Amino acid sequence: MMYVFKFWKSIVFIICIIAITSALIAEFVFNILPCKMCLNQRYAYYFIIIIIIISYLYKNFSKKLLFFFVEISLLYGLFYSIWHVGIEQKILSGPASCSGQLNISNNTSDLKNQIIKQEIINCEEITWTIFNLSAATLNAILMLMLILFNTIYIFKLYNNEKEKI
């Protein structure tokens, strides 16, 4: 376990690169287009990759601050991935621009505007699964595991600093 924490920043960086690369390969090689919720889930990975690169460039970058930002980003990503799983399972409703539903209107121009603004990919549709788990479900599991280990790492950092005092 100690070995994992020694290289935690690199491990998180590599996991985020793999997650984003997998999503981009699915999108651009296998033509599995993402919905709005899928895109929102990716922002956490992008931010984490950028903040870790910045921490590598600036050696004085605080580890506590870095992993606090990683934690917040992971919580953001977990929020959207759980919401997306809820939408896929028809437990939760998604944003109007994501669920493929139109609001009832007597005005044809309102209806036209709703149709024009409608997302092409419906968030309720599961485009692919592996072991009967959707991409959103797999992402939620990955985010949850990363949050768990990142939280342990933050507490470990805090306790190490406390012992030095």
Strands, helices and their partners?
Layout: H1 2-6, H2 8-28, H3 36-57, H4 63-88, H5 108-117, E1 129-130, E2 133-134, H6 135-164
Key traits:
mainly alpha, two-stranded antiparallel sheet, 6 helices, 69% helix, elongated
Estimate percent helicity.
55-70%
- The structure class reads mainly alpha
Largest sheet: 2 strands, antiparallel
Give the termini separation.
Answer: 24 Å
Weakly predicted, low-confidence segments: none
What is the count of helical runs?
6
Number of domains: 1
Sequence of secondary-structure elements: HHHHHEEH
Mean pLDDT, nearest integer? 86
Tell me the strand percentage band: under 5%
Instruction: Give the overall form.
Output: elongated
Q: Can you summarize this structure?
A:
The chain is an all-alpha fold and 165 residues long. The chain is built from 6 helices and 2 strands, in the order H-H-H-H-H-E-E-H.
Q: Overview of this structure, please?
A:
With 165 residues, this protein is an all-alpha fold. It has one domain. 69% of the residues lie in helices and 2% in strands. The chain is built from six helices and two strands, in the order αααααββα. The protein has helices at residues 2-6, 8-28, 36-57, 63-88, 108-117, 135-164, and strands spanning 129-130, 133-134. It has a two-stranded antiparallel sheet with strand order 1-2. A hairpin with a 2-residue loop joins strand 1 (129-130) and strand 2. The model has no long low-confidence stretch (mean pLDDT 86).
